[in-house]
Amino acid sequence: MDTLWQHEAFIGGAWRGAGDLRRFPVLDPATGETIAEVADCGEAEAEAAIAEAAIAYESWRGTTALERSRVLRRWHDLMMERQEELARLLTSEQGKPLAEARGEVAYAASFLSWFAEEARRAYGQVVPAHRADAEVVVLKEPVGVVAAVTPWNFPLAMITRKVGPALAAGCTIVVKPAEDTPLSALALARLGEAAGVPAGVVSIVTTRDAPSVVGALMRSPTVRKLSFTGSTATGKLLMRQSAETVKRLSLELGGNAPLIVFADADLDVAVRGTLASKFRNTGQTCVCANRILVEDAIYDRYAEALAEAVRRLKVAPGTVEGAAQGPLINRAGFAKVERHVADARAKGGRILAGGQPDAQGGLFFQPTVIADATPEMALADEETFGPVAALFRFQTEDEAIRLANATETGLSAYFFTRDLARAWRVARRLEAGMVGINEGVISTEVAPFGGVKQSGLGREGAAQGLEEYLETKYVLFGGL
Length: 480
Ligand code: ADP
Hints:
Shape: globular
GO molecular function, one term: succinate-semialdehyde dehydrogenase (NAD+) activity
CATH architecture of the largest domain: 3-Layer(aba) Sandwich
Helix content: 25-40%
Radius of gyration: 23 Å
CATH class of the largest domain: Alpha Beta
Organism: Aureimonas flava
Strand content: 15-25%
Number of strands: 22
Bound molecules: adenosine-5'-diphosphate
InterPro entries: Ald_DH/histidinol_DH, Ald_DH_C, Ald_DH_CS_CYS, Ald_DH_CS_GLU, Ald_DH_N, Aldehyde_DH_dom, Aldehyde_DH_Superfamily, Succ_semiAld_DH
Keywords: Oxidation, Oxidoreductase, Potassium
Largest sheet: 7 strands, mixed
Structural class: alpha/beta
Protein name: NAD-dependent succinate-semialdehyde dehydrogenase
CATH superfamily of the largest domain: Aldehyde Dehydrogenase, Chain A, domain 1
CATH topology of the largest domain: Aldehyde Dehydrogenase, Chain A, domain 1
Strand order of the largest sheet: 14-15-16-13-12-18-19
């Protein structure tokens, strides 16, 4: 197969430019340089993709689960064969260290293999009937044409996590990738094409004008479901827009994850877990710890150990050997981190590590640890989405739970303790869709990923992830 660098949109199985050959630049966040010019689609291309998806749906839904499973498995295998090339492409438009990019390729591919397996387990039911002369049968059917709107922080995985179950269920899907990272989406489509995904089953509509393309998807009565990953604000907007045509919704929105360190925790495990949870992807994940709550008795020791570990993180372009912290994705992301640090400093925060833009300039910010954080600081209720660890102090388990739950969102939560009874108690009381105990990285294709409260609706991955793309049809056989 030829190169994975594609610049045209992928609609109905064809590589197409946008009307009047409009294009938009894709930047390398490590250098600020333009690395590609990609088709800038509008409503017309979105509508074409929907029409192609509707045609393809008629035949794709009629394939056997085994046929769909084989296509997904081949797609997974091709991703892994091209892992290094995909990782480099990902790093060049997204900025994460190459080691993390390789990890994302494998993680993204795992959703294709997982749903290749789940495709064959979309069982219905035969229910004992309410009458002697009847049979009650429950069928599982694909939802139909799906729209996916995805973010830039995991440009491959956030797509396969939707495309995998959609295809497994027999749905067809139109993907609108984030404007910062369209190249990964197009590379994925190229591999899907080679794996035998039929024309129109997956389309990728690249654009820098999200409202127009997504608006067309949301208005269309043909599109029966939206799966969105991104900010809570945009999620609410799309939820409102989807009301008009009553679409099924899966929403993975923002988090404001608490990470609690109890005094009985293993200090090394807690520091390692915090580093992994907070500084992965330079702090740009929706499950990154955003508020670190530390029990008074261990506060100073933990703070010093964390600061020391953070000072050792190498800040460098993702392609540099040993890079641990890449650039932030764009100016807006960088400005938010600066604002949070300045606000925390002004409100009495003590900087134990970092605290400044990095000396190499551009979008690099020093990984930062701030002690004496308080609920009045902006970083207490806004997701920083950057390399800033803010340490709050608490005295009792009840206080920790109260602080942890004092947020409108509830995606992930973490805590560190060696007390078994406390582990159960706290896990039960945390208002979150996912809880990590003595562990800072919890995402895996085998477990249901998703949040409660304003963090969203539905789950991705796991058996639950397939259900999101299935409708239930009840059939009564009467007069038997
Ligand atoms: P983030 O803060 O992670 O960039 P966004 O919610 O802004 O989160 O972006 C997630 C996805 O939603 C991206 O694909 C983006 O293009 C899209 N998006 C952003 N704003 C809108 C909007 N007003 N209408 C439709 N899609 C949008």
